[in-house]
Amino acid sequence: MSADDVCRGQCLCGAVRIELRGAHDTGVAVCHCYRCQRWSGGLYATFNAPAAGVTVIGDVARYAAPPLAERAFCPVCGSNLWLRDHTEGAQYELIAGIFPGASGFPLKSEIYVDQAPSYAPLRGDHPRQTAAEYEATNPSVEGDAP
Ligand SMILES: [Zn+2]
Ligand SMILES: [Zn+2]
């Protein structure tokens, strides 16, 4: 994708639209932790984009996921939009399913594989980490309680 292209996404009802400009990840990461399963209703699949390239159009509801992150969703239809640290300028972890252009992105990683539901195993040779492996190098942003 060139820098001039705009990648567009929207919630189910269209009240929230998101435009991406410039470089962003073109691979999808899946997190199977209990929090992400509960929030997404199943498969939590996202890709990262720098804050500077993200334009959000429409009102967004935010759940302050304790202690360090927010989870945003459409207040009208409930579509999940992103997870993001509260840190100023933090990148967006965007829900892949609201961007039609992301449907062709390859799966690049799975984390919390030891908490993954058995009903949807994911194929491929991408890196996989258990909760312990992931948390050994990444501080948990929301605490460990399922
Ligand atoms: Zn909506
Ligand atoms: Zn998670």
TrEMBL record:
CENP-V/GFA domain span: 7-113
Top-level taxon of the source organism: Bacteria
Region annotation (Disordered) ranges: 122-146
GO MF annotation terms: carbon-sulfur lyase activity; metal ion binding
Keywords: Lyase, Metal-binding, Zinc
InterPro entries per UniProt: CENP-V/GFA (IPR006913), Mss4-like_sf (IPR011057)
Keyword Zinc in record: yes
Keyword Metal-binding among record annotations: yes
SUPFAM superfamilies to which the protein is assigned, alphabetical: Mss4-like
Regions that span the bilayer: none
Family: Belongs to the Gfa family.
Name this protein carries in UniProt: GFA family protein
Biological source species: Pelagivirga sediminicola
